[in-house]
Every structure is written in structure tokens, then in C-alpha cells.
Amino acid sequence: MTTAGAHPRAGPRQQERGIPSPRTWTRLEFLLAGLLLALAAAAWLLTGALAMPEMSSGILTGMQPMGDGAGAVVPPAAFGFFLLTWVVMMAAMMLPAITPFMVGMRGLLGARATTGTLAALTAGYLAVWGGAGLLGYAVVRAFETTAMGGGPVAARVGAVVLLVAGGYQFTPLKRWCLVRCRSPLALVMRYAEPTADSRFGAFTVGVRHGGYCLGCCWALMAVLLAAGVMSLLWMAAVAAVITVEKTVPRPELTGRVLGALLVGLGVTLLVSPGLVPTMA
Fold first, then answer.
1. If you count Cβ atoms within 10 Å of the first and of the last residue's Cβ in the chain, which end, N or C, has fewer?
2. CA 186 to CA 198: how far, in whole Å?
3. pLDDT for 8 beyond 80
4. Contact at 8 Å (CB) between 59 and 144?
5. What are residue 12's phi and psi, to 5 degrees?
6. What distance in Å separates the CA atoms of residue 106 and residue 192, rounded to the nearest whole number?
């Protein structure tokens, strides 16, 4: 006996993850995946248009202290612009990552998965990352202040960011969040009814899934802030790492390798902070 809307041809591993095999996707599910990826592509283009040159580098890539001209932008305007850009960036980086979850939810709910339901799920997910932008703004401002202390000081602070991010890869919390971010079947099954009952219920489920992904990826986002929050190159690099973590067959091994690389780079910069400009 199968759940309504589920895909009986999906293999055991795919069913464990709550993600039907692409071979079993319906036309509507392919359209849903295509729409999410198209929105992500549009968000990448918009990020490129919004990107400010002075924020394309960070304390890991030779950030220069902002001059007096920066004071021409009042703090509320700067804060609002940062949040706008941050939300667009998160849409660009995370919409591809949640596509399998959305397809799995649509397959489980079947005809009950209306456009409003799926939009509320996506909005809830992005709301979590939008909220994270509040802390992200404070971190960026702290990095700007650090850059005023000179290159070696900024480089060593950046090295600490790398060490923290690398060390987090080995923690039980990272593994716990990654398992739930990679395998959302329990979330999908448990909250299928509230998702179908109301858009608020769907929004809440999106928030829960976004919380797991934030717990999984916050340290990598800190590295992005330190490398250049509006750098398309570093955005692509971090997005690629996140995608690999969520799709490779052995995520634990991948996480440990990534953690070791981040820790090794952090130690290198602590010893030789003069290497920072070469990373730009």
C-alpha cells in the first residue's frame, strides 16, 4: 500500500530520502523543478546587477577599509539594501537545493499541492535565510571594522572564521542537520496534513526545513561573508560546496575532507597572513 501521490517506482534509497527518482517524475513535477531553477537563474542575474564593487571582497580577499564616502549612505538605507541583496542571493544559492524537497512534497500531496501551497513552502524556507541576513549584516559591519586594523589583523580574523567553519564540519550538530536537510522524508510525512490544510501550515513547514539547512550551512555562509558577500565567484563556490554536501553518496567523508581543507587553510593564514591578497 502506498501513500497517495507517492511514486511506487522509486527505489528504496530514493524513498528513504523522500525524493522520487527523476525517472518517475510527472510532467507537473518537471515543470515545478524547472520553475524553481528558472527563478534561481533570475536571482543570480539580479544579484549581479545589485552587487556593489566594494562588497565583492572580504577580509579573506583583501578588503579595503571603506572611506568617508561610505557615510553618504544612511545606515537604514544601507541595511535595507543589504537585506534585499541578501534575500536575492539566498534565492539564487538555495532554490536549486530545495528543488528535490519541493518535488517530494508535491508527489506526496498530489492534487492538494496547489500553487499557493508550494509558494508558501518556498517563502517559509527563504524567510529563514532572510532572517539570517540580520546577523549577516552585523558580521559584515564587524569585518569592515576589522579591515581598518590593517591587513594582518583582518587576515587573522579571517583565519579564525575558516577554523571555526572547518571545525564545525566535524560536530554532531552539523551531521544531525545535514541528515535532515538531505533526507526530508520524515518532515514531509509528518507535516503533510498541515501543509495541505493551509498556506500558513505550508509556510511553517518551509521554515522548519529552512532551519535544518541553516544549521547545516551557517558556517559556510560565514566563510562567504569573509570572502566577499557580493562576489558571484565566491557565491558560486559556496553554492557548489553546499550542493555537493547534499547530493554525494558519502556526505560524512565529504564533510570531513572539506573541514580538513578549511582548517588547513585557516592555520596557513594564521602563520602567513600576507597570503590573503593572493586569494582575491
1. N
2. 19
3. no
4. no
5. -55, -45
6. 10
- How far is Cα 189 from Cα 194, in angstroms, rounded to an integer? 10
Could you tell me if 102 and 122 are in contact, meaning their C-beta atoms sit under 8 angstroms apart?
yes
Look up residue 15 and give its three cell numbers: 524513498
Average pLDDT, the chain: 77
Cell numbers at 95, concatenated: 532554490
Q: How far is CA 77 from the centre of its chain?
A: 25
Q: pTM for the complete prediction? A: 0.76
DSSP 150-180: -HHHHHHHHHHHHHHHHHHTTSHHHHHHHHH
| C-alpha grid cell, residue 274 | 600576507
DSSP-derived secondary structure letter, 72: G
CA 56 to chain centre: 18
Confidence of residue 18 (pLDDT cuts 50, 70, 90): very low
Grid coordinates representing 151 are 591587513
Handedness of CA 43, 46, 51, 56 (dihedral sign): positive
Residue 223 · residue 262 · CB < 8 Å? yes
Query: Hey, what amino acid is at 180?
Result: R
What does the DSSP assignment read for 31-71? HHHHHHHHHHHHHHHHHHHH--GGGS--TTTTPPPP-GGGG
CA distance 17 to 262: 28
- Give the number of C-alpha atoms closer than 13 A to the C-alpha of residue 249, restricted to the C-beta side: 1
Q: How far apart are CA 3 and CA 18, in angstroms?
A: 12
Rama region for 57: left / alpha / beta (φ>0; ψ in -120 to 50; rest): beta
| Span between the terminal Cα atoms of the chain, in Å | 56
Report the alpha-carbon distance of residue 109 to residue 192 in Å, rounded.
7
